[in-house]
Design goal:
This protein is of the alpha/beta class and 497 residues long. It folds into 2 domains: 278 residues, Aldehyde Dehydrogenase, Chain A, domain 1, CATH 3.40.605.10; 191 residues, Aldehyde Dehydrogenase, Chain A, domain 2. Helices cover 39% and strands 20% of the residues. It has a 7-stranded mixed sheet with strand order 14-17-18-13-12-20-21, sandwiched between helices. Strands 9-8-7-10-11-23 form a 6-stranded mixed sheet, with helices on both faces. Strand 5 and strand 6 form a beta hairpin. Helix 3 packs antiparallel against helix 5, helix 4 packs across helix 5 and helix 10 packs across helix 11. The radius of gyration is 24 Å and the shape is globular. The termini are far apart. The structure holds NADP nicotinamide-adenine-dinucleotide phosphate (NAP) and magnesium ion. Magnesium ion (MG) binds next to strand 3 and helix 4. Magnesium ion binds next to strand 3 and helix 4.
Length: 497
C-alpha cells in the first residue's frame, strides 16, 4: 500500500535538541528558534539555538574524544564496521529521515526517499569501506634511512552545511572526516536542522562513541562564526554561499589558520550546440536538471547558452517540460517540484523576476508565486529568453527555478560567455562532434563538465569548483586528503659497525 505521508507526518517525532558529547541537550542559554515548514507554514518545533558557549562545549567534548583515542586510535577496519552499521541504520530509518527533510526544507518526498536518504547511507558505506584499503607510503630515500609518510587525522573538524541537501552535504563531509579518525562538530543550516540531529542520535546508536560526532544547531553568524574562529578547531569544511565562504577565510586568518574546504556557489553554463542531433533530448534533460530540487542546487544549469539556429526549438521544449514541474504538495509522491526553503528565500528569488524585466529579458513562462492558499512557499518554474550574459539573472546565483536562456552565434562565443562568470562549478556541452566536445570541455573553467548529459553522479568522482566556486573537493578518495595531515618520519637505520 502506498505510504500516506500526511498521516505519517501527524505522528512523527520532531527532534529539537543538540547532540553534544553523546547527549541530547538544550542550548546553554535556553534559547530556541522556530522551525517552520515551507510545505504549509506549519510550526514543526522550537529547536535549540546554540551560541559560543555551546560551541565551546562541543569543541571540548570533541577534543577530549580525539585525544583519548576512543575513535581516532581505532583500527581503520573497526571504524569501517561502525560506519557501515551507521549506514544500515540510516537505511532502516529512511522514511523518517526523508519525511523530516521534506517537512523541513520542502523538497518532494519522492526525492527525499529515493535520492537523498539513499545517497547519505551510501556515502557512509563508501568511506567506511574505503578506509581500511588506503596505505601509507615509504619514500624512495637513500639506503640507511627509512622515511615513512603517514596520514594522521586533523583532530577536531567542523562541518557547516546549507539547507538544499541538508543530509547529503553533511554526509559528504562527516563520512570522510569520521573515516579518517577525526572528531566532528556538524552545524546544519537554521532552515534545516532536523535531520542533522537525527544523524547525531543514530551515529551514537551505531556505536560511534560519545563526543566523536556532535551537532550544534543555531544560526550562522553565531554558531558558524564561533566554529570558524575557534582556536581549537583544526579544520572547517563548508558548503554554502561564496560570501560566507569568504567569511570563513577571514575567520581562519583571524584565529589559528585552520584548514578550510569550501564548496561554494555556481552559475553553471549549459551549452547546447546545433551539432547535437537530438535537440529535444538536450533541452528536455536541461529543463529537468534546471528545475530539480526547485532549482536550489549549486550545480543548477541556470545559464542555458544555445546556438541561434536551434534556439526556438530548445525554448519550445523547455517551456513544455516546465509544465510538468508545476509546484505540488511535497508530501505527494507524484510531485516533482516542491516548496522553496522559506519565505525569505522565496522573496529573494522572486526579486530576480523583476530584475529580469528591468534588464530586458523575455519571460517565456512562469514568474509567479504558486499555491499560496496552502500557506507554503512555492514558485512556478520560470524561463527567461533572449537574455545577455551581463544581466543579473545571468551573473548572480538565484538558487531557484529560474532558467536563463542566452542565444549565441558560434562555439567560440558560447565558451567565452560560459567563462564570463566569477563561478566555475559545473558546466555542460551538447554536441555529436568529438573534436568540439574536447575543445569545449577543455576550454571551460569549471570543476565539472558534462558532455551530452547533466548531473551524472557517483561517489567515485571529485566534486567542487574553480574560481569563486570554492577550494578543495568533496567525494571520491581525493576528499580523504582534506581530513588528514601528512607526517614524514625519518629513521636512521644504517648499521653502525
Ligand atoms: P549560506 O547562507 O552561505 O549558509 C550556509 C551555512 O553557513 C549555513 O549553515 C549558515 O547558517 C552558515 N552561515 C551563514 N552566515 C554565516 C556567517 N556569517 N558565519 C558563519 N556561518 C554562516 O548558504 P545557504 O543560503 O544556506 O545555501 C545556499 C548556498 O549554498 C548557495 O550559494 C549554493 O550555491 C551553495 N551551495 C554550494 C554547494 C557546493 O557543493 N558547491 C552545495 C550546496 C549549496 P544559518 O543558515 O543557520 O545562518
Ligand atoms: Mg525549516
Amino acid at each position: 500500500m502506498a505510504t500516506d505521508w500526511h498521516e505519517k507526518a501527524r505522528t512523527l517525532d520532531i527532534p529539537s535538541q543538540m547532540m553534544i558529547n553523546g547527549e541530547l541537550v538544550y542550548a546553554a542559554s535556553g534559547k530556541t528558534f522556530a522551525s517552520v515548514s515551507p510545505v504549509d507554514g506549519r510550526h514543526l518545533a522550537d529547536v535549540a539555538c546554540g551560541d559560543v558557549e555551546d560551541v565551546d562545549r562541543a569543541v571540548a567534548a570533541a577534543r577530549l574524544a580525539f585525544e583519548d583515542g576512543r575513535w581516532s586510535a581505532r583500527a581503520p577496519a573497526e571504524r569501517k564496521l561502525v560506519l557501515r552499521r551507521f549506514a544500515d541504520l540510516l537505511r532502516t530509518h529512511r522514511d523518517e529521515l526523508a519525511l523530516l527533510e521534506t517537512l523541513d526544507m520542502g523538497k518532494p518526498i519522492a526525492d527525499s526517499t529515493s535520492i537523498d536518504t539513499r545517497a547519505v547511507a551510501n556515502c557512509f558505506d563508501w568511506y567506511g569501506e574505503a578506509i581500511d584499503k588506503i596505505y601509507d607510503e615509504i619514500a624512495p630515500t637513500a639506503p640507511g634511512t627509512v622515511a615513512m609518510v603517514t596520514k594522521e587525522p586533523l583532530g577536531v573538524v567542523a562541518a557547516v552545511v546549507p539547507w538544499n541537501f541538508p543530509m547529503v552535504m553533511a554526509a559528504w563531509k562527516v563520512a570522510p572526516a569520521l573515516a579518517t579518525g577525526n572528531s566532528v562538530i556538524l552545524k546544519p543550516a537554521e532552515q534545516s536542522p532536523l535531520t542533522a540531529i537525527r544523524l547525531g542520535e543514530l551515529a551514537l546508536e551505531a556505536g560511534i562513541p560519545p563526543g566523536v560526532f556532535n551537532v550544534v544547531t543555531g544560526d550562522g553568524p553565531e554558531v558558524g562564526r564561533a566554529l570558524g574562529l575557534h582556536m581549537d578547531v583544526d579544520g572547517l569544511f563548508f558548503t554554502g554561499s561564496t560570501q560566507v565562504g569568504k567569511y570563513f577565510m577571514m575567520y581562519s586568518a583571524q584565529s589559528n589558520l585552520k584548514r578550510l574546504g569550501l564548496e561554494l556557489g555556481g552559475k553553471s553554463p549549459n551549452i547546447i550546440l546545433s551539432s547535437y542531433r537530438d535537440t529535444v533530448h538536450a533541452a528536455t534533460t536541461s529543463a529537468h536538471s534546471a528545475f530539480f530540487n526547485q532549482g536550489e542546487m549549486c550545480t543548477c544549469p541556470s545559464r542555458l547558452i544555445v546556438e541561434r539556429s536551434i534556439h526556438a526549438q530548445v525554448v519550445e521544449t523547455l517551456v513544455e517540460i516546465a509544465k510538468s514541474y508545476a509546484p505540488g504538495d511535497p508530501l505527494d509522491p507524484a510531485t516533482s517540484m516542491g516548496a522553496m526553503v522559506d519565505e525569505r528565500h522565496t522573496g529573494r528569488v522572486l526579486q530576480f523576476v523583476e530584475h529580469a524585466a528591468e534588464d530586458g529579458a523575455t519571460l517565456a513562462t512562469g514568474g509567479r508565486r504558486a499555491r499560496q492558499q496552502t500557506g507554503g512557499c512555492y514558485i512556478e518554474p520560470t524561463i527567461f529568453d533572449n537574455a545577455s550574459n551581463d544581466m543579473r539573472i545571468a551573473q548572480e546565483e538565484i538558487f531557484g527555478p529560474l532558467l536563463t536562456v542566452i542565444p549565441v552565434d558560434s562555439v567560440d562565443e558560447a565558451v567565452k560567455i560560459a567563462n564570463e562568470s566569477c563561478y566555475g562549478l559545473a558546466s555542460a556541452v551538447w554536441t555529436d562532434d568529438l573534436s568540439i566536445a574536447h575543445k569545449v570541455s577543455k576550454g571551460i573553467r569549471a570543476g565539472l563538465v558534462y558532455v551530452n548529459c547533466y548531473d551524472c553522479d557517483d561517489l567515485t568522482t571529485p566534486f567542487g569548483g574553480f574560481k569563486e566556486s570554492g577550494i578543495g573537493r568533496d567525494k571520491s578518495l581525493h576528499a580523504i586528503d582534506k581530513y588528514v595531515e601528512l607526517k614524514t618520519t625519518w629513521m636512521n637505520v644504517a648499521c653502525r659497525d
